[in-house]
């Protein structure tokens, strides 16, 4: 059981990993906490945005959509490898997912196939939206993949987690495909190397 780190620690830890960070508005107090608790936290969830263009992507993830209010994550990783902090606290990114997957993340063991949507993931995961069309063809620049891995490693290092605490949306909620264009095993491998 882990309490979320403070917003200041979140910012400092990501910067300490060597990632360029941009603070967007009053991100420290922009959240959905009025909809329910945030925490205990158990892992980091990665998404792709199905958007193109950094400014558009960051704005959408901060403000949300008509059917899904923002913030839609805690940080947006744009193609240039910059992490834009858009919210802190409960965010609309994970939705309902599989309780068996959550138990596996907590135990840091291999993930089972996600076949249920019965558990509130917004409560339990840090979330990063990553700028990409999500069509399997839009490239993932090395600088972006490096920033994603370093942001995940920063959180894992703070909480004493291994790379097994990093999951993709597609591993959490049936029917989701994100992130598409790289494998979560390859990302976890990058995080594992950073944590050595």
Automatic annotation (TrEMBL):
InterPro entries: Amidase/PGRP_sf, Amidase_domain
The organism of origin for this protein: Streptomyces triticiradicis
Transmembrane segments: none
A GO MF term: N-acetylmuramoyl-L-alanine amidase activity
Domain N-acetylmuramoyl-L-alanine amidase: 27-180
SUPFAM superfamilies given in the database record: N-acetylmuramoyl-L-alanine amidase-like
Biological processes, Gene Ontology terms: peptidoglycan catabolic process
Coiled coil: none
Protein name: N-acetylmuramoyl-L-alanine amidase
Cross-referenced Pfam families: Amidase_2 (PF01510)
């Amino acid at each position: 059981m882990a309490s979320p780190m403070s917003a200041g620690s979140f910012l400092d830890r990501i910067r300490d990993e060597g990632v360029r960070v941009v603070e967007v508005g009053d991100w420290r107090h922009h959240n959905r906490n009025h909809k329910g608790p945030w925490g205990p936290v158990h892992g980091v969830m990665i998404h792709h945005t199905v958007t193109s263009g950094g400014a558009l992507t960051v704005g959408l993830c901060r403000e949300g959509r008509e059917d899904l209010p923002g913030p839609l994550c805690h940080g947006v990783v744009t193609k240039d490898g910059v992490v834009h902090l858009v919210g802190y606290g409960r965010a609309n990114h994970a939705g309902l997912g599989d309780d068996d997957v959550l138990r596996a993340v907590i135990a840091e063991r291999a993930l089972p196939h996600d076949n249920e949507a019965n558990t509130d993931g917004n409560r339990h995961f840090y979330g990063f939206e990553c700028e990409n069309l999500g069509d399997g063809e839009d490239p993932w620049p090395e600088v972006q993949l490096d920033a994603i891995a370093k942001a995940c490693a920063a959180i894992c290092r703070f909480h004493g987690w291994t790379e097994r605490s990093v999951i993709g949306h597609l591993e959490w909620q049936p029917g989701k495909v994100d992130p598409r264009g790289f494998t979560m095993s390859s990302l976890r491998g990058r995080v594992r190397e950073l944590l050595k």
